[in-house]
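Two proteins follow. First one:
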Amino acid sequence: MPIAWDREAHARSAGLRTFPLVAIATCGYTLLAFRVFPEDPEAQARVIQGLVAGIGFVGGGAILKQRGGVHGTATAASIWNTGAIGVAVAYARYEIAVVLSVVNLLTLLLLSPLKHSGDGERRRGS
């Protein structure tokens, strides 16, 4: 939710609805893979592989090209990361889910000002 809140607060293309749904869905599909393929880790891996590709497609929808620039890549990467958080929770690897969440949120909060200051430098240098 903190990642979703950050994206929503900055009026990004995905926010309070998208991020929890991605996390819940990836967790749910992973849990179903455990149930359907309890003795087949390769089949479980294929389910996760499909999730990774599908989430990449969803994230791709957050990327916009306009006025000679590309926007939304951090939101797309955050969506992809949120899927990994859901899989980590399904595997009961809460420490991984927490680290992924914290690093994602800190990246958005702490590195955005640096990115924006660099944008200004590029504009002045053009």
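Second one, unrelated to the first:
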Amino acid sequence: MIGTTPDFAQLVEKLAAHEAIAPMSAAVREAAHAAALARQPKFPLLGDPELAEPEGDPDTAWNTDWGNVWQVLRTGAKSAEQVALVEALLALGDRDQFPSAPESELNTAALVVWLAAHTTCNAFEAFDAALGQGKAAFWQAVGRLVVDPQSGGVDFGQTEALIAAVALRHSASPTAKDVTENLRKELTDPVLFSVLAREPSASQAPALVGGLSPARKGPVVTAVMAVTLILALWHAARLIGRYAFAYRRPAKVVLSDRGLEVTYHTELLGKVLRERATLVPLSNLASVTREVRFARLGMYAGLVALVLGSYLGMGLFVDGVRVPGGSATLIGMAVLLIVLGLVIDFALSSLSDSVKGKCRLLVVPRKGRAVCIGALSTADADAVLGAVAEQVRV
């Protein structure tokens, strides 16, 4: 099942007492710094199978209640719990940097900010839980990135400054609140000032719970698949998998300050085959739309009319020339399958949700594949769309 993020205070406390905490946190720290240096946005969801084997037996010694750290680093995090495990170990591995030399503090804070802005690794809460007296130095370094983002790197800009500001605004640390108050007095950027002045609002958007659906196909692709009978066969296979083998893909969409977080897993016969988590930062969001009731009804009606018209015309032509060996019955069966494929495609992609008062949400990133989630509450989907629009304006 889709994991839930554990309490970071308990997570950090238990990991700190682990007998292999030193090599585990060092390995996570090295992997995170390498991902940030290479600007790898899929950390920690994408593992590194070429990692050098550490001393001892990590396959057993690095086991935790949230997964084996070595396997997570090699194959990637498969759940929210494993992402949290990486975040906590990163905080434990880098907590000695606070306090330290100002340059080292700034570099580590820049790492955390970049990861939060461009990957699913948002370690701010973990650092809050792992740092003791070093919290003041950490949040002051984060504050410097709000004022001067390019001090974190030549490619740092408004996005990273916004992420740093949001982290400060949402932190429960008294030091973070002090830094926030000081920044309000010196910031001239109205957007950053607004972020630091407003109350956290991401929690106002409800979590969307539905099922992962195939992204909408274009008219040309739909027509080609229908004419070649692939559409009918594809949906027949989906229906068999759904009702004979209990094939399911439950999904959850949550709007956070990092963007839209989509988690889903694949079930077969009641067993979970795999889990995935995808983050679409608002800076990488091309569009997010709720599909209207009976989406593309006109397109499907037009395709059905085209097929039927072609069949009737072909029938007259066949009757006229009577090619030996021709069979109007076979042509009719083919047309029936084409129409059936179009009707099933429309029913499964639009009609089934609309009749139940549900809708589909289509998330299209600027880079990467589109994600479509169906069987969603219309009211909740509209609330999320409104929250996205509000965050984009800010």
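SUMMARY FIELD: The radius of gyration is 26 Å. Strands lie at 63-64, 67-68, 208-213, 250-256, 259-268, 271-281, 285-290, 358-365, 371-377.
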